[in-house]
Every structure is written in C-alpha cells, then in structure tokens.
Specification:
- The structure is a single chain.
- This protein is an alpha+beta fold.
- Helices cover about 35% and strands about 20% of the residues.
- It has helices at about 1-55, 80-85, 90-100, 210, and strands spanning about 105, 120-125, 135-140, 145-150, 160, 165-170, 185-195, 200.
- The longest helix has about 50 residues, at about 1-55.
- The termini are far apart.
- The relative contact order is 0.08.
C-alpha cells in the first residue's frame, strides 16, 4: 500500500513540475513583454521633446527674392500726392494762365512754371505789347497766386534758376539812350525766397528807370 502511495505521489510530482516550470516561464515572458511599453513610451516622449525643441519655421516676407514663390506683398492704401492724382501739371498751369490773363498779361514761357514745386513762377507779357517788352513775374505758392516781383513791369525778365522754395530772376539793365533790344549796363540777378509762407527778395530789385528800357533823363 505504501508503495502504491509513493508511486502516485511521484507521478503527481512528475506531472506538476513541468507545469510549474511552464508557469514560471510564462511569468518570466509576461514580465519581459510588460516591460517593453515603458521603453517605447520613453522613446516616444523623447521624440516628442525633440520635436518641440525644434523652432517653428516662419514664412518669408521678402518680396522679389532670388527664386521660389514670393510672399504676398502688402497692399498700399496711402493716397498718392495730390498733384499726381489730380493731374496738377495741367490744372496748375491753366489756373496760373487764367490769373495772368485776368490782370492783362499773357504767358511768355509756360515751361518755367513747375507745378511740382511749392513756389512757382510764370512770366507774363503785358497785353497789347507790339514789341514783346513790358514783363512781370507772377508768383504762386502751391497753385495760389501771391503777387508779382515788382509794382511796375520791366522791359524783360527771365527765370535763371528755381527750386521748391527759391526763384532767381534776371533783369537786363539799361543806360540812358539804350534801345530796348540792347541793354548795355549788364544784368541784375535777384533771388526770391519763400520762408514761412512769405516771399521776399534776397537781393536788391533794380529800379524801374534802369530795368524798364526807358530810363529817365538825368
């Protein structure tokens, strides 16, 4: 009887041992597989951290670069200068010409009128002058008439130079007995300057007796 019991116990132990070993092996594999996800998660986290550390790329705003598709240009909404929008060249000159005609003068040379300047000038010849003499300079500021160079016309006057705030005029000078076409006393140059809205001569204006072409008797 004891032999049978011993044999049964030995048989049970022989069957249980592989099962237990298999169970232990399964447990070992389970632990190994269960340990893999943390490694994968760590790698994923490191990859995510690396992605977040990479600076974001900002679209280029350079217009007209060397190749590629240019960035859209910013639309300009500011208005153009008034004289560009309203064709100030023709309007300014026509208005200035109307002023001269209203005062009994006709333009002698319209090319000296520069509507893109603040200070503008137009030389006029007295209407009815058969010889073309009897001239005055008419000044305008931004198209607004402000006056003439002198109270009385000169035999002739011309524009030597001009810029945005200054005009230089030339007056032929006559001596007693000089004909209108042959002044013999040289030329006087007078600068007229615009300063704070006021126009003033920077040089002496020649008297009417020497600039008119009809000098008075001494």
């Amino acid at each position: 009887m004891k032999s049978s019991i011993s044999a049964l116990v030995a048989l049970l132990l022989g069957v249980s041992a592989p099962a237990l070993l298999g169970a232990c092996g399964s447990s070992t594999k389970t632990v190994s597989v269960a340990g893999a996800p943390p490694v994968t998660q760590t790698s994923t986290a490191a990859h995510a951290a690396g992605s977040s550390s990479t600076p974001a790329t900002t679209p280029s705003t350079t217009v007209g670069g060397g190749g590629g598709t240019p960035a859209p240009a910013t639309t300009r909404t500011a208005p153009e200068p008034a004289f560009t929008e309203k064709n100030g060249v023709s309007e300014g000159l026509s208005a200035a010409t109307a002023v001269l005609r209203a005062k009994g003068f006709t333009p002698a040379n319209t090319s000296v009128y520069h509507p893109n300047q603040a200070l503008r000038v137009l030389i006029g010849t007295r209407a009815g002058s058969s010889d073309g003499y009897g001239q005055q300079a008419f000044f305008f500021v931004n198209g607004r008439y402000i006056g003439t160079d002198s109270k009385e016309p000169s035999a002739s006057v011309s524009v030597v130079s001009q810029n945005d705030t200054e005009v230089t005029l030339a007056y032929p000078l006559y001596r007693k007995g000089d004909p209108l076409s042959s002044p013999s006393a040289g030329v006087a140059k007078v600068r007229f300057q615009l300063n704070n809205g006021q126009l003033a001569p920077l040089d002496p204006i020649p008297p009417a007796s020497s600039a008119s072409g009809r000098p008075s008797r001494q």
